[in-house]
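Q: Convert this sequence to structure tokens.
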Amino acid sequence: YRSSDMGTTWIGTGPGNDNFGQDLSKGQGRLSAITPHPQLDNATNPPGEIVWVGTSDGNVQVSTDVGKGADAAWMNVTRATLPNRFITDIAVEASDRMTAVVTYSGFSSVTPNTPGHIFRTTDLGKTWTSIDGNLPDIPVNTVAVDPLLPNVLWVGTDIGAFQTIDGGAMWLPMLNGLPKVPVFMLRYHTATRSLFAGTHGRGVFRLTLERLVVTVSAADYERSKVAVGGLVAAFGTRMATRLEIASTVPLPTNLAGTTVSVRDSAGTARLAPLFFVADSQVNYQMPEETVPGRAVVTITSGDGTISVGIEQTVNIGPALFTANAEGTGFPAASLLRVRNGVLTYEDVATRNAQNQIVAVPIDFGLPQDEIFLVLYGTGIRRRSALEAVTCGIGGTASPVLYAGASTFIGVDQMNVGLPRSLAGRGNVSVGLTVDGRATRTVTVNFK
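A:
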């Protein structure tokens, strides 16, 4: 049934012989789970509403238009891979209208041809995948999905609660104060970022969840460029009790009481070297030994506050540092001039009297001068070969003579030859491509 006036009146949804809606069970069951999706499809009239239901005799049905009442269409999405057992709960991903998770009671040993207790669909029920992972063969009573981190799920079972942070590949028991008793209801509370658990006989428990943190490239702030060995920045809240900058080499792994642990795709956790810590930002080096892939970043503040993020680390995530530290505009670069065997370095950008960053025009100088643009970035050092690094300056291909680690921790250096054909061009864009991945473009000026 559906009410649009806070329960004053109710209407049946779907066609039925008694005007009270469609029978959604296999014939002898009852509705045992019902979950609406929070997003509406406002492109239709009435707006499209997605509602999932499960039954005690193993039926899963979904409607995308329950607002139509008796004209609503229910789709039976019970597939052969799903067990013919009691459906206990259904959860949806707040950001994805096509995704849902269904849980089952009973034991796989009762339905050996269709084992499993937790199934996920990403296509509105056309296909289902078991995400039981390493869970024991035990009834699963309830499920909740983190609305901010969709691969983080919690389930309540007959022997307590379990959590996964990788979409069900690995489940860990939640032993921090919750007894090993049947958990019949788990629900997420947005305002306090808390998880509530209703148990059999032991009351209700609340767990304050870890704060969320996002790690990006420290050069251009792109999340897709979190590179192994690169300089990265994490953003969140309450990550440090005070601002502190590292002053020693090698870099410390504990700064003002804050630590950063990175557990890589192979399951190995390492402490990261720290450059800078503050309440809302922590700059660190992604450990050089990190195996690329999904990584869990855990930041622990000096007061014990824990922040967690899940990132996709890569071998190559090319990004250029800029003079304004915003990832755009003029590069944090130098001009190297070689004249009669003598090397001198010149600026390509500076601050004027109004404290604005402006270009220093590049002068090719004497005919015998050789000049090179020295760029600094991160996420480049693990490139496959020097030939895999290319540079375009104002549409002109420029030779890359070096691309690798610099003398600064986590920072990479690129030395690029400057063809004299660029003289007089004024402002032009500069961009690098490393193993097929491009940097954002920056700007230099040619006199």
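The longest strand covers residues 31-41.
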